[in-house]
Backbone:
């Protein structure tokens, strides 16, 4: 992907040829169990894959993170046998899934979503608008959070449905600053008819699936950030060894050494926190939601600092389109926003420590 990463960013699109190659390697079905044809990776193993993909392309890594982990994770733990058989198998054969949660009215306040699913005989009719849906340009199906109860019921009135891409879904692509090519779009659902059997989990109990999926998603978003951090560090370190100033490579100047050392500490500390949180998910430890937020928050905060320092090391060259650092700088900012802002992560951590968030255990 390295030779085409810059083209993906410039065109805000990934070609079918690249998507097909990545799909053939199983990277869009990382957590799909072997019985459905997938590689059945653990959370930690999936983190490593996403991290490595992000060293080349944040966009491809984002698709892998959603379609490969968040979508199959929800299907494996909450869907019926028939849905698992159909959609996990489709993922293992190269199809792409997406998770439609956020709305123009409600980003972090997912309990306030307004997209509705009204019962009609044996079906549900879905109407509403979703936004910031990663993968949606390339997705073959969506996990859609919709209100099936009263709005005042908030989180107690939400259900999850599997919705195939259809003419009833109008897609408007979003031109993002970074992670370009990830296919983020706004979706308008207009009278989308979905059979009752496509509901994931129980009626009005979908918010649990949302929270569980987001906890998984935060680890993967952090892994994307980690890959970007590693790529920026590697490039700036190599630059510092080659670029000469005042008769010697700039890495021999103490100020540059200080920046390089600071970057290395932030990089390795982020990696340890992410791997630790991933192991907690794999071990089903009850405090993993808090550690998921800790890993996401620290990586986002330190990642922005690291890439800024990498650009500082490269100076004017790092600020130009000739350097990959310029792209990494735009990409890493998205890690502070996606799957809950830094401020939301701190809120989750504080509430967990205060005992106001119930630990999750399956």
Residues:
């Amino acid at each position: 992907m390295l030779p085409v990463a810059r083209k993906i960013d410039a065109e805000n699109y990934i070609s079918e040829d690249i998507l097909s190659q990545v799909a053939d390697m199983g990277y869009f079905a990382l957590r799909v169990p072997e019985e459905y044809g997938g590689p059945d990776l653990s959370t930690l193993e999936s983190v490593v894959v996403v991290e490595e993909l992000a060293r080349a392309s944040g966009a491809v890594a984002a698709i892998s993170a959603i379609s490969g982990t968040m979508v199959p994770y929800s299907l494996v733990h909450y869907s019926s046998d028939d849905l698992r058989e159909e959609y996990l198998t489709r993922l293992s054969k190269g199809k792409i899934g997406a998770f439609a949660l956020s709305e123009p009215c409600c980003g972090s306040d997912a309990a306030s979503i307004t997209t509705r699913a009204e019962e009609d005989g044996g079906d549900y009719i879905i109407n509403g608008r979703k936004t910031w849906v990663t993968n949606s340009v390339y997705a073959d199906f969506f996990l859609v959070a919709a209100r099936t109860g009263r709005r005042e019921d908030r989180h107690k009135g939400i259900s999850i449905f599997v919705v195939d891409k259809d003419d009833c879904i109008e897609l408007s692509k979003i031109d993002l600053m970074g992670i370009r090519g990830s296919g983020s779009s706004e979706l308008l659902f207009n009278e989308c008819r979905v059979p009752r059997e496509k509901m994931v989990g129980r009626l009005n109990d979908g918010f649990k699936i949302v929270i569980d999926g987001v906890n998984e998603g935060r680890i993967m978003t952090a892994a994307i950030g980690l890959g970007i951090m590693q790529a920026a560090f590697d490039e700036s370190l190599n630059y510092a060894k080659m670029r000469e100033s005042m008769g010697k490579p700039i890495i021999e100047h103490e100020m540059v050494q200080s920046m390089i050392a600071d970057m290395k500490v932030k990089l390795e500390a982020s990696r340890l926190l992410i791997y630790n949180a991933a192991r907690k998910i794999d071990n089903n430890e009850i405090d993993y939601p808090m550690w998921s937020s800790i890993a996401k928050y620290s990586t986002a905060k330190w990642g922005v600092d690291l890439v800024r320092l990498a650009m500082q090391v490269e100076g004017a060259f790092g600020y130009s389109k000739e350097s990959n650092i310029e792209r990494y700088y735009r990409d890493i900012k998205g890690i502070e926003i996606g799957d809950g802002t830094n401020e939301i992560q701190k809120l989750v951590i504080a509430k967990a420590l205060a005992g106001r968030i119930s630990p999750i255990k399956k």
